[in-house]
Design goal:
alpha/beta; Glutaredoxin; five-stranded mixed β-sheet; 6 helices; globular
Length: about 160
């Protein structure tokens, strides 16, 4: 079942790269007691994700935080090493937290997976953005296949 606005984010685990190596991040703790703007991309270093999606959130980080967002996170079905390298190369440090969904558990629990096999990507997370307040989805913007409109930082910023 696909998650909807008003639903609680399902329990899952992410991994983020730190100075000390990969660190487990439990979704229940991560979203508890704060407002998080999180967006999902099909893959790190892929064209639209690298040219538009992640840079848009990096550029709009201050504006999102001015509207009450406590943290901005990017997730993808990639490992923590790839997500860490992508974030570093894009200048995300201090602006966007890179959360690896290495096995796709979060995307699957959300009901927001896609099959990228014909592109050699396997099972991935769909492109989406959402606002989560104290673990509950208050905004959810899922892209149509191949689109990049409603999951952008600009679109989410207009919803705040």
């Amino acid at each position: 079942m696909t998650i909807s606005t008003g639903d609680r984010v399902p329990s899952s685990n992410f991994t983020k790269m730190t100075e000390n190596g990969p660190e487990a991040v439990a979704s229940d703790e991560y979203f508890a007691g704060r407002k998080v703007a999180i967006f999902s991309v099909p893959g790190a270093f892929t064209p639209t994700c690298s040219a538009k999606h992640l840079p848009g959130y990096i550029d709009k980080a201050a504006a999102l935080k001015e509207k009450g967002v406590d943290e901005i996170a990017c997730t993808a079905v990639n490992d923590a090493f790839v997500m860490g390298a992508w974030g570093k190369s894009a200048g995300a440090d201090g602006k966007v937290t890179m959360l690896a969904d290495g096995n796709g558990d979060f995307a699957q629990a959300m009901g927001l997976t896609m099959d990228g096999s014909k592109f050699g990507l396997g099972q991935r997370g769909q492109r989406f953005s959402m606002l989560v307040e104290d673990g509950v989805v208050t905004q959810l913007n899922v892209e149509a296949p191949g689109d990049f409109k409603v999951s952008s930082a600009d679109y989410l910023l207009e919803q705040l």
